[in-house]
Amino acid sequence: MTATPSGATPEKKTLNVGVVGTGRWAVRSHIPGWQRDSRCTVVGLADVDQALVKSAGEQFGVSNVTDDYRDLVNDPDIDVIDVVTGDAMHFEVTMAALEAGKHVLCEKPVHHSYAEVDRAADLAASKGLKTKLGFTFRYAPATMYAAELIREGFVGTPYMLNAYEQNSQWLDPSNPLRQQNNPGDPDEIQVASIEGYGAPVIDIMHWWMGTPLTSVVGTMRNFVPERVVRDTGKMTRMNIDDGDMWLAEFEGGGLASVQSSFVTVGNYPGIEVRVYGSEGAIIVRLVEEAGICQTIRTATKDAVEFVEREIPQRFFPEGGTSLEAWPFLFYSNLIADFATEILSGGPENQGDFRQGALVQQTINAFEAAHRRRAWVDFPLPAQA
């Protein structure tokens, strides 16, 4: 028998939200996104840093603040838990929230192992709960418009996709970087860029190519070996992948390339995804340039010059424009989509934990390919 989740009935018209973690991304994107949607009310905030959570509460007019996330998870009046903590706490808070019957939005990754993300997805399914990953760029109006064009056959059969996560944020080693949760062997390069910043373009790659991934190969690099660590303020050896390149093969013959990095000059951060097919091609750039946060350009086999398209207003939140800051605009769409999925009571649930497990398994396969210096078949063998 499936448990009845909080807020899952179609009769419910509004959602009460508890946000766990009140750092920079929470106050820049998550909380403003929830407050933009009239169907949602942020009723509680939690953070182990009491000063930080108090400040966020004052900024957004939320009086219920706590330094223990369990206060929100166990609150019967809260329908949704939004997990915006550091990576190390994502899985613990997520599983506790699901066990308590809450819908969950979690920043990526839910867990570094795809098998554990699948376990979270199974738990949510067993309780009839909706989940969503923080795949911010999936919800950019330009990305959603491109997906519609692909679905309608604009590109025909997708042949090749190029995905770039370009980020010069840590080219300067004095810009503090969070300490890795599990640094492991200091002589063995650790995953950072591909998991933290490459995940959104991997998500779009799977979505737009539309056929199963069959194999991957690629490599990781550590271009800047010493960096200031945020927790200590000291220059430390950080053997992380701050630059990656990968190739992917898909069922039916499709090909994709993925690049992610912390050190590519020109975007801070930004992504670009290009898809080429039998009938046409699409380029989406999600980069703040000249005051605009996104563009989409298309070409056809008969008119090969790329031209910019206007993004239809239906892909924007009410009153939204491409002149808004991308974290607010894209996350507003993510929040609105999640609220609609929960309140409708239907089966729709894009960008959920199952999709997150697929993306995480791809990252795990990329890492395996680097370690083995060889192609790796996909999906990976079942984990014990």
From TrEMBL:
Pfam families: GFO_IDH_MocA, GFO_IDH_MocA_C3. Keywords: Oxidoreductase. It comes from the Bacteria. Residues 145-282 form the GFO/IDH/MocA-like oxidoreductase domain. Residues 15-132 form the Gfo/Idh/MocA-like oxidoreductase N-terminal domain. InterPro entries: Gfo/Idh/MocA-like_OxRdtase_N, Gfo/Idh/MocA_oxidrdct_glycsds, GFO_IDH_MocA-like_dom, NAD(P)-bd_dom_sf. The keyword Kinase does not apply. This is Dehydrogenase. It comes from Microlunatus capsulatus.
